[in-house]
Amino acid sequence: MKIHEYQGKQVLASFGVPVPRGQVAYAVAEAVKEAKELGLPVVVKAQIHAGGRGKGGGVKLARTAEDVESVAKAMLGMTLRTHQTGPEGRVVRRLLIEEAMDLEGAREMYLAIVVDRASGAPVFMASAQGGMDIEEVAAKDPAAILKEVVDPAVGFQPFQARKLAFGLGLPAAVLPKAVAFMQSLYRAFETVDAALLEINPFLLRKDGALLALDAKINFDDNALYRHPDLKELRDFDEEDPLEVEASKFSLNYIKLEGGSVGCMVNGAGLAMATMDIIKLAGSSPANFLDVGGGANAEQIRNAFRILLADPEVRAVLINIFGGILRCDVLAEGVIAAVKELGVKVPVVIRMKGNNEEKGKQMLRDSGLNFMTADGMTEAAQQVVAAAGGAR
Amino acid sequence: MSVLVGKQTRLLVQGMGKHGTFHAIGCRDYGTAVVGGVTPGKGGTTVEGFPIFDSVAQAVRETGANVSVVFVPPPGAADAIMEAADAGLGLVVCITEGIPTLDMVKAAQFLEGRPTRLIGPNCPGIISPAEKCKVGIMPGHIHLGGKVGVVSRSGTLTYEAVHQLTSLGIGQSTCIGIGGDPIIGTNHTAALKLFNEDPGTEAIVMIGEIGGSAEEEAAAYVRDHVKKPVVGFIAGQTAPPGRRMGHAGAIIAGGKGTADEKMKAMAAAGIHVVKSPADIGAAVAKAIKA
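ok -> structure tokens follow
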């Protein structure tokens, strides 16, 4: 689960990590009031769940209250496009009004903590090249990224923080503060069950202060059950409405751009493979949808509703491989859903399980626009043709 | 012949709730020797003919169990894995999906240096059809005893591949579902090593998906050590970057972990990579004839 920069900073502050003073604002008047309370100049930062906001015009310095007013007015409601939002961009609904930092003579660096699959443990990373796209740094100069693998039994040790601090070339006077800073970050990471914690940039100010100038925290979705307070930070406006709807029914749905074949599958791997075979058959999948183990009548109905709320869908492919699944029961559920929702688009069904022939016969006898297929290739070809051919 | 599970398997089921009990019956019906279940606090009772024990250690003492399958829900699953390891079991298969990653980090470290191999979590389990031994939730009837080893991060996609093989009369030695999470007990490379060293396995099917670099590492292992034919498929060729595609481990992050990269690495290692999931069976048929 993603959260906004201002929320990430609040979380970090609660662990003693120094962050610039700032407040979220949802309206222009609020922004101006907060700016005055903080003391001008301030930085006005658009809050969206994507990076690259600076380059996209989402971060602006405001020297006077009038500046704050005009910047906030322009930013709130704007569609901010960055290299991470895609061309459609994201509407800005929240702003972070933050004290402006004196960057004269300051160093901007990079810190991040992420669970590394290869090591099976969290890794604390640091780079002297802050404020830059870390993937670019990793591509051009991998040695520039320092890494310390954390031993889960003992956690992130001070000597590891010192290694990173020395590696970054931090002055001796700043060492104790830097160690404390990094330890607080790790404590935060572990306590909130983060999947990623990224500080880009981490600032060493001319006066020796260390601050997190930006904060990106992604929470491990699997751990949210034990963090009800963090669950509250979810911003539904940042998510696709169909995906939000699907999650309410424990359906795993991801909308894909420009696709015309909707698909409904049981199992994430098979769902991805189904998307792949639709592409190979000459069309584009409109979505990923894993109905999981619950291919019952209610789930089928919910899945159809969500799939068909996407106007680009011209045909639907259902690919259900169930060992114990009764195909006649599945067919019943599909027929009921299609009738109830008045589904007009052609539906291709490929199902494997018990009573396969019975299920197929029920679909054929229903009088509705169903096609049945035996293998995945046949299913993909049928649905692509039904969707109006290759596109 | 088989790897890890077979006639020698005496299976315990940790977590005998509705789900665990249903699948305990399924394993028993397939032919597995299911010797008991573990539900702390319910020791001494019997469920569906299975004796229930309070702890794994007690169950092992009284039944001689050597493998456990974990159906315990996410909040207690990592702990269940560690309990099984502490009891000295040689193999633990964790079906549970949704275990917090940092819990698995701890469990993985706990297992290091102990004689317990973990398969999963978030996996369908492991099955050796010729020996009628099933440890997991997969449909037994689609499998056929034979000589092809299957290793996969997926559940139903694995069944699809197995179905294709069985339809062609190509049987399986052992099918290992290694799971869809980012931190798992047995990765592709470890499974390939087992198959490589198994005289009963003559060819291998390797199914992967986007996210991480396990398939690339496995490809290097194949290149350097495996002479048996390997067929590969990677799901998620059409997945967008940055999105978690169902499985917690299926995410293209920072440009890394794409299907493309994996397929290239595998092909370069001599693996017969198929683009379509429907071609897995046919590719194996061709590879074993050659």
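The two ends of chain B are 22 Å apart (CA to CA).
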